[in-house]
Amino acid sequence: MSLDTLASPPLAPSQPDAAALVRLKAHYDSMPPVAVMDLSIAGYDGQRLRLHAPLARHVNDKGCAFGGSLASMMTLAAWGLVSLHVEAAGLDADVFVADSQIGYLAPLFADLDVEAEAAPGADWSTFIATLRSRGRARISVVAHARLPEGGSATEFTARYVAILRR
């Protein structure tokens, strides 16, 4: 689902909540460093969140995407994914990145298209159940920035923590 389709007819129950994407985009835009990134939500299917930003806003001295921008985009995509799952569960929690690692595999000479999803072995239902019962939970997330010709320019792994608000 993209933000371009938000004006379409009401979503079927199996589709992600379009209003949640609008709230997520507004939250991103409320942070001054993020607002200048000119990022957009390119899609969300309930399992993967995709973000997009124009290369022109993130170009380095070599004409390719700035590494810090790639790291920020992947951090934001993973954070947004966790936040969407927490909200979909009807919970009110703060979400934080606990730790992360990034690998830069190839220069990206195109717009930044980033996708985040749960890491292999991570389970959203266990994460939400733990958050409900303990008031805090962790989940591992992976993200990558795609090269136009296929493959990844960067790979990102991180653990996110959610803590219920009291």
From TrEMBL:
Entries under Pfam families matching the protein: YiiD_C (PF09500)
SUPFAM superfamilies: Thioesterase/thiol ester dehydrase-isomerase
Thioesterase putative domain mapped to chain residues: 29-162
Record InterPro entries: HotDog_dom_sf, YiiD_C
Protein name as it appears in the record: Thioesterase putative domain-containing protein
Organism: Marilutibacter maris
